[in-house]
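Minutes, methods subgroup
Present: GH (chair), OT, SY

1. OT presented the first of two proteins processed in the latest run. Sequence and structure tokens recorded below as shown on screen.
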Amino acid sequence: MVTASICTIGDEILIGQIVDTNSSMIAKALNAIGVKVVRMISGADSEEDIFATVEHCARLSDIVIITGGLGPTKDDITKTALAKFTNAGGFIQSKEQYEIIEKVLTARGIELSDINRAQAMVPDSCKVILNECGTAPCMEFVMQKENGNQYLIFSMPGVPFETENALPKVIEEIISHFKMENIFHKTVCTFGIPESTLSKMIEKWEENLPENIHLAYLPNTILGVRLRLSIYGIDKENGEKEIDSEIAKLKTIIGDAIYGYGESSLQQAIGRLLKEMKMSVCTAESCTGGKIASLITSVPGSSEYFKGSVVAYDNSIKINVLKVREETIAKYGAVSRECVEEMAEGVRKVMDCDFAVATSGVAGPGGGTDINPVGTVWIAVSAKGEVSSKKLRFNAPRAINVERFSSNALNMLREAIINL
């Protein structure tokens, strides 16, 4: 199997100033074509460190992909380090990248400087892969190991959207140099069943999977548990048929806990259902502060089914806008079944929707009581006037609590739509 190492360059990564998203993006693209990522390394903005990191990865991998250290400032020295590593004879100008640099800077209203011009200079040992979104060119180096085997080094910009734009070209180059082993993956997205419970439920199914199908559990406290099925050494069409056959068996065990496949999200699943049914939804949110509405509207085309939201943080909004009765809050409190059910039905009527979801809880870190400690949430869904609700408790920091409140509310809404 073809192997790869991913190296991110930058002191800003090492001190935690920015989060490295490039590695996961590149790893997914490599995995999709059958390349196994064997290591991810982050290194400092030091020529010595870059050289040593590339040397180490090149010794152990068929492909080395580096991101970062290609900008116009003095600490961007990846290009220099790679020139030395590949024994380049000197630097030459990439005319095509120079033209892109001029175009990009002109569009930004920035005057072209000598520093910017220097970015078009590349080691003569490389093949340039044009960066059409920025000023730093991507570079490809074809190298040989001591045993005569070929390996590739790619240098890409650190800016994530520039890396994303150039990545398909890098993948094309890799495919042209290596014979890939056929591989097919399919991920099943589930929600509402904890990993340990799910594992027990599907134990016999898992034990009876064909030997060439591998199962991986990908748990996430917010997204639910994803089950990735992988099949190797088979063409995509037959691989997909074999995996789909096993997924059909899985459905008979866990049913509606499956909400999608691949990178699907709960909000996307909800959108698909509402579009098919030609129905609408709205939200009334207290402790989630508009998070649920934000997730729903993150899906392109959500204007077809999402009408709006009321963030009723203060009780006066619950009473005056959502028509929650004053006596309900006085008797049961804002964090209660009675209040959240009236919120859901109230917003559904105000917005004239088919479905409404409402939340009221205690995200923390303060505000908890003996009855409703921090991490408590009441969720209600009104489905054409039929209201259901449930109480959940979590034990996490405020931001994670809000995420969990929101994802569970979305799943409850999804289930209500399915069961209407």
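2. SY then presented the second protein from the same run.
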Amino acid sequence: MPQVPILMPQLGESIAEATIMRLLIQPGDEVQADQEVIEVETNKAVMGVTITCSGKVTSISVAEGETVAVGAVMGLIEATEEEIERSGATPLADGEAPAAPAPMTSSIGSDGAHFATEGEYREGTSPTPQTGGRGLPVPVGTRGAHYLSPRIRSRMDELHITEADLAYVTGTGAGGRITIDDFENFLDYVDGWPSRPVSPMRRSVASSMQRTWRRPIASAGRPIYMAPIILHRRNHPRKPGVTLYFLRALAIALAQAPECAGYMVGGRILTPRRIDLGVAVQVADGVMVPVMRNVDEYTLDELIDEYNKVVSQARDRKLDPAYIGGGIATVSNFGGFGLTFASPMPLPSESLILGIGSVQKTPVWSDEVECFIPVEKANIVASFDHRVVDGGDIGRLMQKIAYYLEHPELL
């Protein structure tokens, strides 16, 4: 009978590969059309691969943990001519052998020790400075030190190493330049360190933060009185998530001052067309940012169900594609980890992120009772692209946010 390949599908506009998380079928299994047969992880979410026709699994050519390119054959299904015609599946031609998927990993060393993925040798503490020409954990700062020869760049490409990773290497060449010996000595030095493979999620976060840091990012913060939110939430029958209050307040404020989330492109500053806002959700080995659309057009109550749904999907790493990408700003509640202040980093596609610190009781002087009284406060921090807006713009934006947070009935 004809053989129908199980292909790695195109799982997103910018996704070129995915990692096999779970094989849900084995050779010999009977499967049905549209059945989920393989669970894969991209740099955005965990998704299921389905099949187009019913039949019997004859082979599986991938293993859990492999990273496979889009379009690669991951297995074969034996199907009848009638089923192929009914489903519109494309079988292999007679005598055609399926191309084996190429794992997207690298190794170095004659002993096969794994070393390749971006940031993998960052595990553990910083290396102790040593003499003798080894790579040292001292950032290169002298003039001309950032020049890298074609030979080094070729090795970097081979091992998926970026220039940011070479901040650990001291150059011994002219002007502090990193030589090929410096580079190879450093690889030898870190080769035996404890390590773990970089997951697609971690690789995505690393790439995003490196691209974000190409811009001048500044941060500004101020305290917010939390008693109004706490009281409003306590009396609300559906107990909205605390982060949702901040998401809604940011949406209203940006609707009034959208230039605070603008983009600089060449000689123009673009103003967002819609108030689509992301919410940062901590997941295993990274952060997911589902994006809610037109947040300024809906009330707090109207957003509760959607907010709970997207946060739940993000935690399960199974986001609906409708909630992926396209945001103009993000809200990150780092206070859930007990942090009172932080400098969150906006995504490369955004120029603004609002961070929320943990609630703290602070003594504040009361003229009415002539003594200090405990007041619940939390810091909010806005990190922004300083090319687009200045501190005064952000200060006025945060005043608006504070006003709505301290009058939650307006949300």
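Chair's summary of item 2: Confidence is low (pLDDT under 50) at residues 102-145.
Next meeting: continue with the remaining queue.
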